[in-house]
Specification:
Largest sheet: none
Number of strands: 0
Helix content: over 70%
Shape: elongated
Radius of gyration: 26 Å
Oligomer: single chain
Strand content: under 5%
Length: 320
């Protein structure tokens, strides 16, 4: 029991340093992927600013030359930012393919080299199918982990920080509301992910390995099974393993659902606080339509990105 408790945070302490060591083998690729995706995210972040200027210009009327000029400048800014975002995101998505494939290839070769050099006793007492399943699942887990960190987690954090700054520059109180919500919400999701989801995910992953090993070893030894007429026994053994696997996976998925429900409830409170704060500021004094749009955009985006960040944290904590 003590050993299991000590292993709970191991997914973060072991997997992430292991992944970053492989990233250091191709620093140019990591920098290209991260830089292009973060640049695309920053371009998206400033889109509501130009949208707010466009709304203000259109609200001033088409007869005003200054308003027409401001509208065209805002429109050009929106198009330029959209083009920059598309180009940078395309570069990042194309660069992450060889980057991830090389990482997966290196990990699989390294795992095979290590397993081959284990002792004969270890190979005699270990199921080959389970070992194969662990190696292949580990390869694809790194693919998911790369996508989670580079495509979801880092951009989400950048948008969250940028939205807080943008709102804080116009309405410091609203920026503080989003910042306080993020400070409360994200640590809560880390605790949920590491202490509630990750232990169940590790057990279900272990039983997933057991199912793969049972199938592979039974089929590999099919000639022996047939020679003893033991097909029914193997069917019953697989049914028992799948039954245990199904119960463990159900527990993991139900924990994901429970966490998602708590997450949505907290996000609803955060979103209501930001929009309610904007209404109070509107009641307290005049507010341009563009500034209201600037408030609603980052507020909704921030709550959505907080949700995406927490989902990325959950995925990162449960991949193992």
């Amino acid at each position: 029991m003590t050993a299991q408790l000590n292993q709970r945070p191991a997914a973060i302490r072991v997997v992430l340093p292991f992944l970053f060591r492989h990233w250091r083998n191709q620093p140019a690729g990591a920098a290209l992927v991260a830089g292009s995706l973060l640049g695309a995210t920053v371009a998206d972040l400033f889109m509501p600013v130009f949208s707010g200027h466009l709304v203000d210009a259109m609200a001033s009327g088409a007869s005003d030359p200054a308003a027409r000029r401001a509208a065209f400048i805002a429109f050009a800014g929106i198009v330029a930012l959209g083009l920059i975002s598309v180009i940078l995101r395309l570069i990042g998505l194309r660069a992450i393919v060889p980057f991830t494939l090389r990482t997966m290839s290196d990990v699989s070769r390294d795992a095979f080299m290590r397993v081959q050099r284990f002792s004969t006793d270890w190979h005699a007492n270990s199921f080959a199918g389970s070992t194969v399943r662990k190696i292949t699942r580990g390869m694809w887990a790194l693919d998911l982990l790369n996508d989670t960190i580079l495509l979801a987690l880092l951009p989400s954090l950048i948008v969250l920080l940028g939205s807080m700054i943008l709102l804080g520059l116009h309405w410091p109180s609203l920026g503080l509301v989003i910042g306080a919500g993020a400070v409360i919400y994200l640590p809560m999701m880390v605790v949920f992910s590491t202490s509630y989801i990750a232990p169940a995910a590790r057990v279900s992953n272990a039983w997933d390995t057991r199912v793969g090993g049972t199938l592979a070893d039974a089929l590999t030894c099919n000639a022996v099974v047939k020679s003893f007429g033991s097909e029914d026994r193997e069917d019953a053994r697989l049914a028992r393993v799948i039954g245990r696997w199904r119960r463990r996976v159900r527990r993991t998925w139900m924990r994901y659902n429970t966490t998602a429900l708590a997450q949505l409830a907290v996000l609803l409170c955060l979103r209501a606080s930001v929009i309610g704060g904007a209404l109070l500021l509107w009641l307290a004094g005049p507010c341009l339509a563009g500034r209201r749009h600037l408030c609603a955009g980052p507020a909704t985006t921030s709550s959505t990105l907080i949700c995406a960040t927490s989902a990325s944290i959950s995925t990162t904590c449960s991949v193992r």
